[in-house]
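U., I forgot to send this yesterday:
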Amino acid sequence: MRTLSEAAIDKIVETCNGDLRGALKALLLVNEQLEAELAQLYAVVSPGSPSTRSHALH
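Result:
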């Protein structure tokens, strides 16, 4: 029985036509984008930020 993560890995590799290097590169690019978005989010909600009060997460 495959786990959810194994199925996701198989799907990513399949999307890259079986190219493991291509799949890894795609995942790294997605990770970089997510890290950039997270950094932007932290900048908005960080303590002392002037916009913290109007953009607070709940």
